[in-house]
Amino acid sequence: MPIKAIIVDDERLARSELKKLLALHPEIVIIDEASNVEEGVEKIDLARPDLIFLDIQMPGKTGFDLLSELEKAPKVIFTTAYDEFALKAFEVNALDYLLKPIDPKRLADAIQKLQAEIELERASLSGNQRGPLSESDQVFVKDGEKCWFVKLQDIRLFESVGNYAKVYFDTNKPLILKSLNALEDRLDDHVFFRANRKHIINLHWIEKIEPYFNGGLLVELKGGEKIEISRRQTVKFKEMMSF
Amino acid sequence: MKKSASLYWICQITGWLSYGLTIIFFAYMLDKQLSLTFYPRILINIIFGILMTHLLRKSMIQLSLRPPTPSHQWWKIFSLIIFFSILFSILTSSIIEIFRLFDSDREGPKNITDHFSWSISSIANNWNGERVNKRFLFSLILDTPIFLVWISIYVLWHYIEFTNSEEVNKVKLETIIKELELKTIKSQINPHFIFNALNSIRALVDEDPQRARQAITELSNILRSSIQVDKVEITSLEKELNIVKDYLALEYIRFADRLKIEYEIDPATIDNQLPPMMLQTLVENAIKHGLGKQPGDCLIKIISKFEQDKLVLVVQNTGLLQSTERDGFGLQSTKERLNILYHGQALFEIFQCKPNQVTAKLAIPISISKK
């Protein structure tokens, strides 16, 4: 099954050089290309590629800005001439980047690795591309200097903080500019549950459930956070949890 | 300055007082009964000691003999010492003579140690009768060493102070030089530019081989001049402009239609001298902010002309001046370089000249330029 890809780079020659290199990899199909961030976001949201080749330094906005504007991040291979600082921003994430001029061998390695990942995901998932975000989908999170690609299954809690949402995963709690209501609409409601006005929890991360005041429940997550489930939501919760 | 002056006076007074006290101490130790004239004699010695050494210092400063002194000037210092020792001896012994402060009742020195324990004039006074010339001679023999001690301390003090300040200055200068070297090297070669250019050239190899070959030449020229920038102190505007043209040609390959370039060069200016890579830095900065920070088209205009006694270089670019740009690394090091090379005779400014145009202006003296 071919991998659909979009190239985002402000230089025409850089795009054409990459296309030339990718001609050796028929499994990658370039469905479109973009020369700036706005165009890129538009085309990616529309065409839903599996992969984007993304330049970091572009006029106006950077590749990181593009990722934070996307609702759901596809697989990304960064292409950059010289950006050791920008790339250091990434934490543990296994992230692929290629230095321009691109070494064909490095490109082949990156594609091979990616292909294996994509095959695996496709096997476990019978392609609900247009539906809500699934557990194995990744989101791009940028908080100040640090960036992460996070799989939704690794996120145990969203907490509302004003206009922002605090995302809990591993030991990190970065903020993203999204409201809980918007998140709730996009998330798979079999996995993510709106516990109360302020919290959305990942049901797979629940450690313990205790009764609480007013017929509500108190849920303890594997990360140690204690979240109250409001009375109204408790009914729904019990419904979901029973056979 | 004030601090060192007061320090001088503290040293002067404590030094001479301890000289007096030492003599009194030894006189007590060796000869229990001191005459009434002894103390005034010491006082006169101290007062004239301070006065004469102060005059000695004044005349040394006046003759610019203040240490560290070149070796061929030493004889001058030595003559000054002799002169002031003689003057001192004449004055002290005459005053003692006039006020009759010598111990006329005494029979002359009892022993050798007695001579040394007593102040110079007291010895002279005790020598067979009260002959002025003898008293004077003794005063001279015993006072000159005091002056030599004084001058040694004075010279030593200045040498230590000099080497200290010299060392501090040296260390300071070295760090500044290192910092600047580092900054120029860093600001000269922008790795991002080099790798992007190489990437475009690789794409051109198939697309337009002729242009690719030309681009390799252009990139070589830029690399060569940025390697040489540490070795060459000054270059001609013509050479610098060639580098700028090569650089802009390469950027034009990358950005194509987005980039427009205009030159307005007064032919008379091209032989003028300027520090290498200085114009280049400004052009790089213009590209970075004109093309890199906004998606639209960008006009880069380079102007060179004479204005009064200055060579004026102007680089304009489309865009808005950001506060970070003004204090940016490249421009900051440009300012520092200019300050060091032209000692404040050069001008550099960057400003928003039109709503959508930024001007960087550099003015360097023509007279400084060497052939």
Please give a structural write-up:
The complex is a heterodimer of chains A (about 240) and B (about 375). With about 240 residues, chain A is α/β, with parallel strands linked by helices. Chain A folds into 2 domains: about 5-125, Response regulator (Rossmann fold, 3-Layer(aba) Sandwich); about 155-240, OB fold (Dihydrolipoamide Acetyltransferase, E2P). Chain A contains 7 helices and 15 strands. Chain A has helices at about 10-20, 35-45, 65-70, 85-90, 105-125, 180-185, 230-240; strands at about 5-10, 30-35, 50-55, 75-80, 95-100, 140-145, 145-150, 155-160, 165-170, 175, 190-195, 200, 205-210, 215-220, 225-230. Chain A has a 5-stranded parallel β-sheet with strand order 2-1-3-4-5, sandwiched between helices. A 5-stranded antiparallel β-sheet of chain A has the order 10-9-8-12-11, with no helix packed on it. In chain A, strands 13-14-15 form a 3-stranded antiparallel β-sheet. In chain A, helix 2 (about 35-45) packs across helix 3. The mean pLDDT of chain A is about 85. Chain B is an alpha+beta fold and about 375 residues long. Chain B has 2 domains: about 1-175, no CATH class; about 190-365, Heat Shock Protein 90. Chain B is about 65% helix and about 15% strand. Chain B has helices at about 1-30, 40-60, 75-100, 110-115, 120-125, 130-190, 190-205, 210-230, 235-255, 280-290, 325, 330-340, and strands at about 235, 260-265, 275, 300-305, 310-320, 345-355, 355-365. In chain B, the strands form 2 sheets. A 5-stranded mixed β-sheet of chain B has the order 2-4-5-7-6. A two-stranded antiparallel sheet of chain B has the order 1-3. In chain B, a hairpin with a 2-residue loop joins strand 6 (about 345-355) and strand 7 (about 355-365). In chain B, helix 2 (about 40-60) runs antiparallel to helix 3. Chain B is rod-shaped, with a radius of gyration of 38 Å.
